């Protein structure tokens, strides 16, 4: 697309859903789809080439939901234009900046029923097989919507691409969690794929890593809910542990040997942390009381480091997956009248504050 000068701002289009010349015209074709006409609630990805669809949804007074970038702060934002918004204001609301300025978060408990899903693509076949950037966000967003009951197998999926992006895709490239599309809109064509390949039926937890869990609080919440519902929520890291690894990891190490995460991102080259910090405990809390409460939640650690004067404790687990499982189980955890703060302990560097020792876990600030 770059070589043929088909790409449009922002350029270059490498490593992103590419915008292209004629994207606005391709978006207009959605008005010819009966599924758009009867849609009340539409989810449109935040990619630049889909801006025209977001504008049409707002102009048609449909409820517009846009996923949060990389799912870092939640799943959806509802775009809410100001009262009496003019066409120019609606056009601003449809841009990436407008999505930030005119949106309100939609929680997992919100009663969302999406009638139409619009996604960007890097390539798509006339059979409805789709390739994205390779990071899996569109597939994961759809799977999360399935898990929260927002979509079903019958919810139509539309993608908008340039004609040159419609190519043959070998079926061998597809996996069960890959999202397929029902309609392809280009500047010159409206393609009904008739795709019969099933769409994702929910989150495949065996594909989810501890690192992904660390970056997406909404994913941790869904993990907790599905675990409580009795589903298999074993993470990829845990499934792939070699024989004997669990026994080796169960050996308790001193706190300063434990690597960890800060705000969900890796520190240095260490493995993800298996230490969880629990803070905001009552001033009169006892360690025995905390241990009983953790056991009742199914989150008893291999070892506990009590930080009574700081009203907290470090919980040491056998591996990162077990630590994340504990965090999921401790969502909304209360001790006495206090709601505890639960997070992976961050690694404190050698020059850290308060004279902390190198590598020693500390609570996130």
UniProtKB/TrEMBL annotation:
<feature type="compositionally biased region" description="Basic and acidic residues">
    <location>
        <begin position="230"/>
        <end position="240"/>
    </location>
</feature>
<protein>
    <recommendedName>
        <fullName>Methenyltetrahydrofolate synthase domain-containing protein</fullName>
    </recommendedName>
</protein>
<dbReference type="GO" id="GO:0005737">
    <property type="term" value="C:cytoplasm"/>
</dbReference>
<dbReference type="InterPro" id="IPR024185">
    <property type="entry name" value="FTHF_cligase-like_sf"/>
</dbReference>
<dbReference type="InterPro" id="IPR035979">
    <property type="entry name" value="RBD_domain_sf"/>
</dbReference>
<feature type="region of interest" description="Disordered">
    <location>
        <begin position="346"/>
        <end position="365"/>
    </location>
</feature>
<keyword id="KW-0694">RNA-binding</keyword>
<dbReference type="Pfam" id="PF01812">
    <property type="entry name" value="5-FTHF_cyc-lig"/>
</dbReference>
<feature type="domain" description="RRM">
    <location>
        <begin position="274"/>
        <end position="347"/>
    </location>
</feature>
<dbReference type="InterPro" id="IPR002698">
    <property type="entry name" value="FTHF_cligase"/>
</dbReference>
<feature type="compositionally biased region" description="Polar residues">
    <location>
        <begin position="262"/>
        <end position="273"/>
    </location>
</feature>
<dbReference type="InterPro" id="IPR000504">
    <property type="entry name" value="RRM_dom"/>
</dbReference>
<dbReference type="InterPro" id="IPR037171">
    <property type="entry name" value="NagB/RpiA_transferase-like"/>
</dbReference>
<dbReference type="InterPro" id="IPR012677">
    <property type="entry name" value="Nucleotide-bd_a/b_plait_sf"/>
</dbReference>
<feature type="region of interest" description="Disordered">
    <location>
        <begin position="230"/>
        <end position="273"/>
    </location>
</feature>
<dbReference type="GO" id="GO:0003723">
    <property type="term" value="F:RNA binding"/>
</dbReference>
